[in-house]
From TrEMBL:
It comes from the Eukaryota. PROSITE patterns: RNASE_H_1. Residues 1-24 form the RNase H type-1 domain. One of its GO terms (molecular function) is RNA-DNA hybrid ribonuclease activity. This is RNase H domain-containing protein. InterPro entries: RNaseH_domain. It comes from Aphis craccivora.
């Protein structure tokens, strides 16, 4: 949004120029096709790491933790 009271302020002038250039520049981002199996594996790993981190914080007096120290099989 353009505000007339911001005229003459150097930071705003540079921001206006940058915004003008950005609207006129066409960017073509490169998107690499990532196989779904790789995405799923990455998500599963992150979930397992998060769950293990939580499990590590559970007190050792927990009966299940005495039997099963790790969340992953």
């Amino acid at each position: 949004m353009w505000v007339p009271s911001h005229i003459g302020i150097s930071g705003n002038e540079m921001a206006d120029k940058s915004a003008d250039i950005a609207t006129k520049t066409i960017l073509h981002p490169t998107i690499t096709d990532i196989p779904a199996k790789d995405i799923n594996k990455s998500i599963r790993n992150k979930i397992n790491m998060t769950w293990q981190s939580y499990w590590d914080s559970v007190p050792p007096t927990n009966k299940l933790k005495k039997i099963k120290r790790f969340t992953k099989k």
